[in-house]
Amino acid sequence: MIHWTNLLPNPQWLIDLAMPYAMRAVFAALIFFIGRLVIRGIVRLLERMMVRANAEPTLHGFVTRVVFIVGMTLVVIASLSRLGVDTTSAAAVLGGAAIAIGLSLQNQLSSFAAGVLLILFRPLRVGEWVDIGGKAGTVAEINIFFTTLTNFGNQMIVIPNSQVWSGSIVNYDRNRWRRIDLTIGIAYDADLRKAKRILQEIVTGDPRILATPPASVALKALAESSVDFAVRFCADNANWWDLQCDTLERIKLRFDAEGIEIPFPQMAMHVRDLPEVAPPPA
User: Fold this and answer.
1) How many whole angstroms separate alpha carbon 159 and alpha carbon 173?
2) pLDDT tens digits, residue range 217-274?
3) Helices (H), the chain
4) pTM of the model
5) Domain residue spans in the chain?
6) Is the CA virtual torsion 114, 119, 122, 126 positive or negative?
7) Contact indicator for 143, 82 with CB cutoff of 8 Å
8) In the sheet that 216-222 helps form, which strands lie side by side, from edge to edge?
9) CA-to-CA distance for 264 and 49, rounded, in angstroms?
């Protein structure tokens, strides 16, 4: 009579069969976990190095993400290869999937490429006041796909990087100073020389106005209803807005005190040949 234990496979045979696969799994797990620890260490080291080098947060955030993604991709491929997976076939499958994804995400990929260029060439930085295609605001964030602005009304403006890179960028804060251009009109019967002298006193009497390049006051145009002066002076970026507002206020108050009229558009109407209106009946 055959005992049922004789029908079971030899345990040693099972161990011999499973041992190579178990060792592969152990080594693959070790490669994955140790590789992840090494990649994280490299990323932290890069972060510290870029902080010491005073690199922009956007730049070192982008670099560390790229290093982490590339490193983990290599670690996963090495782990799968240790398990005995044919990584060549997997790479072919991933390549085909990448082509399909790329065709369906063309706009996003163009924004990604533009984000890389923005981070590398840095035509704008976080904290700068810029105008991008007619949308003005302070740069709040530059990531891989979008650039975020905050305007005067504290509203968030999100612009795809492809539009940022392909359009025009006006950076108001990259240079230390900016010029202020004012057009000031006076009435035709006002004293022209007196008005010019007052304007020159105003633009030379404010310490916030830069001496270089020098301020200028010049007759600009003989307009339809006013004699226009071009008033130009420069200020540091931090003083630009307040100085412009204060200068306009001082000009108005000084002209009022000196009796110089600032005209506004007027229209004279001459009515001819009015029809006679019959008197009301008695």
Assistant:
1) 19
2) 999 999 888 999 999 999 999 999 999 999 999 999 999 999 999 987 766 677 776 6
3) 11-52, 57-83, 87-104, 106-121, 161-166, 192-204, 240-258
4) 0.61
5) 9-104, 124-171, 177-258
6) positive
7) no
8) 177-186, 227-236, 216-222
9) 61
Mean of the per-residue pLDDT values of the chain:
82
Give me the residues paired with residue 230 across strands: 183, 218
Q: Are 156 and 149 within 8 A, CB to CB?
A: yes
A 10 A CB-CB count for 177 gives 14
**CATH fold of 177-258:** Alpha-Beta Plaits (3.30.70)
> DSSP state, 209?
B
Alpha-carbon distance of 168 to 188, in angstroms, equals 41
* DSSP-derived 3-state class of residue 21: helix
Per-residue confidence (pLDDT) for residue 142, from 0 to 100: 87
CATH topology of domain 124-171: SH3 type barrels. (2.30.30)
DSSP conformational letter for 186: E
In angstroms, the CA 233 to CA 208 distance is 10
- Which one is predicted more confidently, 116 or 230? 230
